[in-house]
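Sanity check record (used in CI):
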Amino acid sequence: MEQEATYRGTVYPWQCDHVGHMNIMWYVGKFDEANWNLFARLGLTPSYLRSSGRGMAAVQQNIAYKCELLAGDIVEIRSHLLEIRDKSIRFRHDMTNAETGELAATCVITGVHMDRQLRKSVPFADCIREAALKHLAEPAEV
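Expected output for Acyl-CoA thioesterase:
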């Protein structure tokens, strides 16, 4: 299922390293911002997380860098839910140069739904699971 962008932004000069391209810390930051937009689509909104005492924790993150992003480049991230389990989800972010359409990086993350007070994983609520199932990527998108 094609998704709307979960992040749009710009590469600023101060986000670039001594070689002149966006430093890896900023790739991670932009992917993190996309996480929260994807989560909100699944019902894991800030209000839900605060009122329920729940949270999400990344337990694995793999990034593949495909091409450099430079100061001034416009960035877009589209996110794809790959899998939902009882207490965890796995999803992929595709970061592109919005001007050229070139894939700049991909990031696959496994996240765990947690009780923030107990610091233990807990099952997703049924409404979250139902929303997530509607957003699962088609096998060809994986």
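Residues 19 and 53 are 43 Å apart (CA to CA). If this sentence no longer matches the regenerated tokens, the check is flagged for review.
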